[in-house]
Amino acid sequence: MPKFIGAARQFEVAGDVDAAAAAQFFWETVTHHYSYVIGGNADREYFQAPDSIASFLTEQTCEHCNSYNMLKLTRHLYQWMPQARYFDYYERTLHNHTMAAQHPATGMFTYMTPMITGGERGFSDKFDAFWCCVGSGMEAHAQFGDSIYWHAGDALYVNLYIPSTLDWHDADVAIELDSGVPENGDVRLQVLRAGALAPRRLLLRIPAWCRMNLRCVSMDGRSRSQRWMAM
């Protein structure tokens, strides 16, 4: 997977369109044909035949490094074309795999997340287990804030519904985001400040799990149901 992250950077730095196509093809293939419901992928660190993961529900599924790197690759692809589906995948994997890969009491990390019925996660310890997934786990849990908000041109994107406050001094804009996700789908976004330099468009991702609800988004009492909504 890091090779395809490298391919993405090769396109961004050197304009290599073949490298971009390889990175895009890999992401599409993994997310559509090799990923479990939590967003993780692979069994025993291997890809099996495409569309066969139902036959590989074992105690050695979903290595966390895989998801860590898939989220990195997702961020690259989203920079090229900001489509909501990229952060639909990102959100699903972040909440269901990345956040579940750290023990809530000890702070230790998993290597695999078993998809087998009755499976139990194993966690690292302080001194005798420094796997690759411990290193990526430390990085992953320090990055929760890096993709909530993005900007490009005159637009500010809200990609993830994580409770947060954005105070962007250079653009003279501040917003506060209250969110019940993933416990519930209630989200409230309030613009605290918007000066003359503030982005003219505020783009909210309408999650895939919300798109069938015609009242999933409202502004001043008016319902909005677009895949992305510009305010």
From TrEMBL:
- Domain named Non-reducing end beta-L-arabinofuranosidase-like GH127 middle: which ranges? 156-223
InterPro entries reported in the protein's UniProt record: Beta-AFase-like_GH127_cat, Beta-AFase-like_GH127_middle
Q: Which domain of life is it from?
A: Bacteria
- Outline the extent of the Non-reducing end beta-L-arabinofuranosidase-like GH127 catalytic domain: 1-146
| Official protein name in the record | Uncharacterized protein
Q: Which organism is it from?
A: Xanthomonas arboricola pv. pruni MAFF 301420
* Top-level taxonomy: Bacteria, Pseudomonadati, Pseudomonadota, Gammaproteobacteria, Lysobacterales
